[in-house]
Write a structure and sequence with these properties.
The chain contains 5 helices and 6 strands; from the N terminus they run βαββαβαββαα. With 155 residues, the protein is of the alpha/beta class. The chain has one domain: 3-Layer(aba) Sandwich (Rossmann fold), CATH 3.40.50. A 6-stranded mixed sheet has the order 3-2-1-4-5-6, with helices on both faces. Helix 1 packs parallel to helix 5 and helix 3 runs antiparallel to helix 4. The longest helix has 21 residues. The chain is globular and about 50 Å long. This is UPF0178 protein GT019_03050.
């Protein structure tokens, strides 16, 4: 029998925490929100909270060391998404994009190029504001991933 995945959330700056909890409850999937001590999160039924040191990579390191094959990780961090994929888990952005082998290299390269431009004094645009459409797209993608897992589960 296939193990139930955990939805693990890079929760420091995640704009879709409420949507994750709603979808997880509908599908009976546990959620683990991981954030630094700088962020106040409230545990609730089906949602565990792990607060870690505020250092730069503490959340990413905790998630990377905790996830298992089949888990679903929600993150905006392309570097963490790369580790998640290597561990056999699914990585989703809060806007509903699934990171996979076909797009992660491009995203990492683009991040590197933009960082080089900023270090050289150039300006880059930040992400556009989250819209209701982004939230809906995320919910639909998370639902699709969970339903696909349930359909493919052994009886």
């Amino acid at each position: 029998m296939t193990a139930v995945p955990t939805i693990v959330v890079d929760a420091d700056a995640c704009p879709v925490k409420r949507e994750i909890v709603e979808v997880a409850r509908t599908h009976g999937v546990p959620v683990l929100m991981v954030a630094s001590h700088d962020h106040r999160l409230q545990a609730e039924k089906g949602v565990a909270i792990m607060q870690v040191d505020r250092s730069d990579q503490s959340v990413d390191l905790y998630i990377a060391n905790r996830i298992k094959r089949g888990d679903i990780v929600v993150t905006q961090d392309f570097g963490l998404a790369t580790i998640v994929l290597a561990r056999g888990a699914t990585a989703l952005s809060p806007r509903g994009q699934e990171y996979d082998d076909s797009n992660i290299d491009y995203l990492m390269e683009r991040r590197h190029e933009l960082a080089k431009r900023r270090r050289a004094g150039g300006r880059t645009k930040g992400p556009k504001a989250m819209s209701d459409e982004d939230r809906t797209r995320f919910q639909q993608m998370l639902t699709k991933v969970l339903e696909s897992r349930q359909e493919n589960a052994e009886p």
